[in-house]
Amino acid sequence: MEEGYGLQERRQSRNVTHVEVLQVNSNSHLPLDVASMDLVKRRLKQRHIQMIAIAGTLGTGLFLGTGGAIHTAGPLGALIAFALVGSVAYSSLCSLGEMTSLAPISGSFPHFASRWVDPALGFAVSDLLKFYVPVEISGAQILISMWDSHHAAVYTVVICIVICATNIFGVIYFGETEFAFSILKLIMIIGLIIVGLVIDLGGAPNHQRLGFQYWSNPGVFAGPPDLEPRYPALNNFLGILSVITQAAFAYQGMEIVAVAASETQNPRRNIAKAIRRVFYRILIFYILGVFIAGLIVPSNNPQLLEGTGINAKSPFVIAMQNSGIRVLPAVVNAGFITSAFSAGNSFLFCSSRILYGLALRKQAPRFLTICTRKGVPIVAVLCSSVFAFLSLMSISSGAETVFNWFQHLSVMGGFFGWLSINLTYIFFYRGLQYQGIERQKLHYYNPLQPWLSIWGMVWCILFILINGLSVFWDFDASDFLTSYINIPLFFGLFLFWKVARGTVVWKTDEMDFITGIPSCEETERPEIPPKGFWQHVAAVLF
Q1: What is the DSSP letter of 434?
Q2: Confidence of residue 400 (pLDDT cuts 50, 70, 90)
Q3: Residues 407, 416: Cα–Cα separation, whole Å
Q4: Which of 73, 66, 173, 137 is nearest to 392 (CA)?
Q5: What is the C-alpha to C-alpha distance for residues 47 and 54, in angstroms, rounded to an integer?
Q6: Predicted confidence (pLDDT) at residue 514 exceeds the cutoff of 60
Q7: Which of 145, 157, 254, 348 could potentially form a cystine with 149 if both were Cys, beta carbons 3.0 to 4.6 Å apart?
Q8: Are the C-beta atoms of residues 442 and 98 closer than 8 Å to each other?
Q9: Strand partners, 44
Q10: Is the pLDDT of residue 214 over 80?
Q11: Any bridge partners for residue 264, and if so which?
């Protein structure tokens, strides 16, 4: 592959010179060539990045929230919601993967937004991604309450400290930790799907064959009883809209695989391989998992309405207990806790690297760029770790309540993140076309673009508007604020940076696809073909 995808030559075909682009960037106070200050090191290997992509952020969203979705929308309603949100997550990740394939650099999608749309957009969206870590820790506390509900503060502090320590010691420790936890999560979700099938087909100790009986009674849809029960069709539709938040929470964080590109060996090749597998991850783990859960627990099961413990949310544990399986629920609950820890660990890595990328380009204080000898942005990690301790709020307000607060805040931040990714990709696509750069020569490109990004952007706007839909039937100030506070916050941050720095929206001939971006020769090593049986197996898996 020719160096830098031949960007210099193709730009000149449109009479766009590199000097002109640099001058425009200088006028907008957005440094692009920060390679001399970027001290993180590429230590994540192929197996690390592949496992992080497959299972790195599988956590409480899937394991803890599926039951609530089935209760609110019914088995088919929950399946529709998860499939719809999954398509938006897929479109967002495909868009991000293509941009990362061109520019595997620190900062990821907030920097791409600053670089190809408007620096104010990158600044605004980066500040809405702070609540991923505390929501996973709060979820872990709910899971622990199955065994011990009297020492919540101790467990919360211990989880926070361990997560922070894992990120402080070095990216290789993070990679190995996530590799091990991802394998455990894969074994667990596959095991849950198999156990669910066994229960459904009558192989559990009670030998009761369920089939699709819960789809007939109480039915495939289950609208919320407090919205429009007098109009069943409308209520069922509102039920599907009401669980969009729960579905989105399960998917969010998938973009971590692209955020890690600046610390990945052979990033273009490995990120491309990881992105191509995302579709199968969504289909098998999320869609099939929700489908099986809807077969083994009825939407009107009273345990789905309980307010404490894992029984309040996990249909898999409920089904095991109801079918006479005695030991496995406790084992599964322990697996759920490790999943929550792993997801929180991944989210802390993601938020610290985004903060570090901002600081490199003068969109955050410069001291955040300080790195250790191992290439860890230590100050950015410590600052991001502070938000983990927000999970201590659950001690006074109740874990379930605080979990729901953080869930809404993180989901809304995630929606804005997906929206910015898809919007940035549309600008990116137009810029490449105008400057004569061939997308097909990137390590990863999707032939369905730009329609995928348009699909994702439109749905993200709708998701943001309906995020707190139920609050308009039974108004609650705290629910309203957690559902919609991110909207004025986003626009406030956007306008602040736009006015303070006088930023402008990039024109297609002003977009810079060269400065500060390493060439393929700098990042990619020749691929070594596998030898022997086990190396071929590893090549297929990782």
Answers
A1: H
A2: low
A3: 14
A4: 137
A5: 11
A6: yes
A7: 145
A8: yes
A9: 264
A10: yes
A11: 44
For residue 427, give the nearest of 400, 449, 402, 404 by alpha carbon.
449
Let me know: does 498 contact 120? Beta carbons within 8 Å: yes
3-class secondary structure for 323-372?
A: CCCCCHHHHHHHHHHHHHHHHHHHHHHHHHHHHHHHHHCCCCCHHHHCCC
For residue 435, what are its two tokens?
């400057």
For 271, residues 6+ apart whose C-beta sits below 8 A from its C-beta are 49, 97, 100, 101, 104, 257, 258, 261, 264, 443, 444
Mean predicted confidence (pLDDT) in 458-477? 85
pLDDT digits 0-9 by tens, 83-111: 999 999 999 999 999 999 998 988 888 99
- Is pLDDT of 26 > 50? no
Q: How far is CA 510 from CA 17, 32, 119, 289, 420, in A?
A: 9, 13, 13, 46, 19
- pLDDT for 308 equals 43
Answer whether 466's CB lies under 8 Å from 493's CB. no
Tell me which H or E stretch contains 187.
helix 171-200
Q: What is the average pLDDT value for the chain, to the nearest integer?
A: 81
What are 7's two structure tokens?
């960007």
Q: What is the DSSP letter of 216?
A: I
Length reported for the chain: 542
pLDDT surpasses 80 at 21: no
Q: Look up residue 322 and give its two tokens.
A: 């109801």
Task: Please answer whether residues 419 and 261 qualify as being in contact, where contact means their C-beta atoms are separated by less than 8 angstroms.
Answer: no
> Cα 484 vs. chain centroid, distance in angstroms?
20
Q: pLDDT tens across 125-182, in order? A: 987 767 677 777 777 777 776 676 677 778 788 888 888 888 888 888 888 888 888 8
345-267-412 Cα angle (round to 5): 45
pLDDT band at 3 (very low <50, low <70, confident <90, very high): very low
Distances in whole angstroms, Cα of residue 149 to Cα of each of 146, 154, 465, 518: 7, 11, 36, 51
Distance CA 141, CA 509 (A): 51
Render pLDDT for 490-501 as a digit per residue (tens, 0 to 9).
999 999 999 988
Question: What are the C-alpha distances in Å from 423 to residues 121, 256, 374, 444, 450?
Answer: 10, 18, 35, 19, 10
What's 469-503 look like in SS3?
HHHHCCCCHHHHHHHHCHHHHHHHHHHHHHHHHCC
Average pLDDT over residues 285-302: 87
CA distances from 14 to 23, 24, 115 (A): 17, 17, 20
Lookup result for tokens 């999943």? 339
Of the two residues 221 and 31, the one the predictor is more confident about is 221
Whether the pLDDT of residue 24 is over 50: the answer is no
